[in-house]
């Protein structure tokens, strides 16, 4: 087959390509760094011709053009699978909504529970000699989504790294409706965060000694997991491996420091496996055609049965708050949505199923509000409306700068005592009174 000839037949402008979108359609922008740019701008220009166009995306890294107009909500409705700060702004504007999920189930959603997508638009790498476009940084759920799409428009960006994959990381020109050559903008970057705070260091000093040589690491989204990862890069640990949902700069730092070899990994030996990646240009340069990394669908990376086969699986995530029962909220402040379940519950369960595996939920003991009020992150019960990301039956290790406790096997009063022991000292007496009122306090002989 003459792939180049087929490419030229399907090559068109963004303005022409988006004419396939009709009022009432479901349009998918895919995921994170792969959201379209030229096509998004062209679709926004058609705003006044369209109504009730429903758009899906997730971990949005820049404000879509379709969401910028004052009356954008009269034409488009945004649906996020996992909220970033940008997604929260779209929701606050009144034109966006969150779609709850365990991230591991998202490919199955497209296979079984969602109607076929009318139009998919996504950034891809340039086509190779075999007619394939690579998804680059976001394998995630894209293959299953594209398999159910009525029309697929790819937007070529020469700056998108080509990432080798397990499966589901490319689409062939034969399965593409239109090809649009974009302006090749730089790939959106996610800040690696500032220097580790004293709280970050205190938490890391508790977690890092729990990680054995040869462990397999997963780091969640957020400053504290990244800070811990950066400190692992400076530790004496060796022969680590990676199996994670999101690949971040801290892994690159660990690899550069010689900490990651993957030689003891039972599955995908020697390969750093992830569902999607976002970070600085350092990360994008590192993963580009690097055989040491491997993109994989999220129903593989986040499958508890896969994690269970990898010994010494270490999962490190963060939280917004936790109650005295051991329930963890990592996605909302009351009814104000912040992020999403993502893969945190998957990894909390999967790590525990691993021989020698451990799951760590890390957080600072307090948070300071915009009004300067200091609040405890360990609370009697979750705030009404807050989401229980990790049920009490699944929490393993909880860590603050004041200590680390294991919740497995503890009764309700033991859980309350353990949680209060790592709360900020200023809040402990009140938490004890709250626990007494709730009937879950029995001071031990410690």
TrEMBL record:
GO biological process, one term: acetyl-CoA metabolic process
Sites where the protein binds CoA: 220-224, 320, 343
Enzyme class: transferase
Domain Acetyl-CoA hydrolase/transferase N-terminal intervals: 3-188
E.C. number(s) listed in UniProt: 2.8.3.-
GO MF annotation: an example: acetate CoA-transferase activity
Pathway noted in the entry: Lipid metabolism; butanoate metabolism
Catalysis performed (reactions): butanoate + acetyl-CoA = butanoyl-CoA + acetate
Keyword Transferase set for record: yes
Keyword Lipid metabolism carried by entry: yes
InterPro entries xref list: AcetylCoA_hyd_C (IPR026888), AcetylCoA_hyd_C_sf (IPR038460), ActCoA_hydro (IPR046433), ActCoA_hydro_N (IPR003702), Butryl-CoA_acetate_CoA_Tfrase (IPR023990), NagB/RpiA_transferase-like (IPR037171)
Record keywords: Fatty acid metabolism, Lipid metabolism, Transferase
Residues at the catalytic site: 245
Domain of life assignment: Bacteria
Record domain Acetyl-CoA hydrolase/transferase C-terminal: where: 279-435
Function: Coenzyme A-transferase that converts butyryl-CoA to butyrate.
Family the entry assigns: Belongs to the acetyl-CoA hydrolase/transferase family. Butyryl-CoA CoA-transferase subfamily.
NCBIfam families cross-referenced by the UniProt entry: butyr_acet_CoA
Name the UniProt record assigns to this protein: Butyryl-CoA:acetate CoA-transferase
Origin species: Flintibacter hominis
């Amino acid at each position: 087959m003459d792939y180049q000839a087929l490419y030229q037949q399907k090559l068109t402008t963004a303005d022409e390509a988006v004419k396939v979108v009709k009022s009432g359609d479901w349009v998918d922008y895919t995921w994170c760094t792969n959201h379209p740019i030229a096509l998004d701008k062209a679709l926004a220009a058609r705003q006044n011709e369209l109504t009730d166009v429903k758009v899906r995306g997730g971990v949005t890294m820049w404000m879509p053009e379709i969401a910028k107009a004052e009356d954008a909500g009269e034409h488009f409705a945004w649906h996020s699978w996992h909220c970033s700060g940008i997604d929260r702004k779209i929701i606050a504007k009144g034109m966006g909504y969150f779609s709850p999920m365990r991230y591991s189930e998202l490919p199955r959603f497209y296979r079984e529970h969602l109607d076929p997508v009318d139009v998919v638009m996504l950034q891809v790498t340039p086509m190779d000699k075999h007619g394939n476009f690579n998804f680059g940084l976001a394998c995630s759920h894209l293959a299953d989504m594209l398999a159910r799409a009525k029309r697929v428009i790819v937007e070529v960006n020469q700056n998108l790294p080509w990432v080798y994959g397990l499966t589901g990381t490319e689409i062939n020109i034969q399965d593409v409706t239109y090809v649009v050559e974009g302006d090749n903008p730089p790939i959106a970057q996610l800040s690696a965060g500032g220097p580790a705070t004293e709280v970050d260091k205190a938490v890391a000093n508790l977690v890092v000694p729990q990680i054995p040589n040869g462990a397999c690491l997963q780091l969640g989204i957020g400053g504290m997991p990244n800070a811990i990862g950066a400190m692992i890069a400076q530790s004496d640990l060796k022969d680590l491996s990676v199996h994670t949902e999101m690949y971040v700069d801290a892994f690159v730092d660990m690899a550069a420091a010689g900490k990651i070899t993957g030689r003891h990994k039972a599955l995908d030996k020697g390969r750093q496996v992830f569902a999607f990646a976002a970070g600085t240009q350092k990360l994008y340069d590192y993963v580009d055609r690097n055989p040491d990394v491997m993109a994989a669908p999220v129903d593989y990376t986040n499958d508890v049965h896969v994690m269970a086969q990898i010994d010494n699986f270490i999962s490190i995530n963060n939280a917004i708050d936790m109650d005295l029962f051991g329930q963890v909220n990592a996605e909302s402040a009351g009814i104000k949505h912040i992020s999403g379940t993502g893969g945190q519950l998957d990894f909390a369960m999967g790590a525990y199923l691993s021989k020698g595996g451990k799951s760590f939920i890390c957080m600072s003991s307090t948070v300071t509000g915009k009004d300067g009020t200091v609040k405890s992150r360990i609370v009697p019960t979750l705030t009404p409306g807050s989401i229980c990301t990790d049920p009490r039956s699944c929490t393993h290790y909880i860590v603050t700068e004041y200590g680390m406790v294991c919740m497995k096997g503890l009764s309700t009063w033991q859980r309350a005592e353990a949680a209060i022991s790592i709360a900020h000292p200023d809040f402990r007496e009140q938490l004890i009174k709250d626990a007494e009122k709730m009937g879950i306090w029995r001071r031990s002989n410690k």
